[in-house]
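The material for today's practical consists of a large collection of protein records. Backbone structure tokens are a discrete shorthand for how the chain folds in space. An example says more than a description, so a record of this kind follows:
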Amino acid sequence: MEELGKEMNESMESGKVEIGLIACASNASNTGSLAGRVALELTKTLGEKAGICSLPAIVTNVPRQTNLVRSIPQLIVIDGCHNECARKIVANAKIDPSIYINLEYDLGFQKEGPFSTFNYEEDSVKSIVDHVLSEIDKKRK
């Protein structure tokens, strides 16, 4: 496990990560859970060029992590609902995302409130991943 962590750090530090994913993934509600699942799926889909950034490290201003996030060429922030927790956290850290997606505002997902962690359809994960990928493509053009 230690070796895997070392390899991941080397990958990040060597500049292989081109796309940083920051998701509000508290898992306290269906949309928070969904935002986290989408970030995981995007990481699988995009491979080595993408990585999930630590939202708690940003909010607590861990210098190494915050500076690392600032050095990633493309940052995608995914919020699950109208509370916009991830967007507010990165804004407070003076980090400017390339792409911002709010599952509630942009894609019409309904937050069901606390303790609704698993109340979403698996098909929703794929449709949101496809949406994010199309947004990435638009930025490239």
Summary: The chain is about 50% helix and 15% strand. The first helix runs from residue 2 to 13. The radius of gyration is 15 Å.
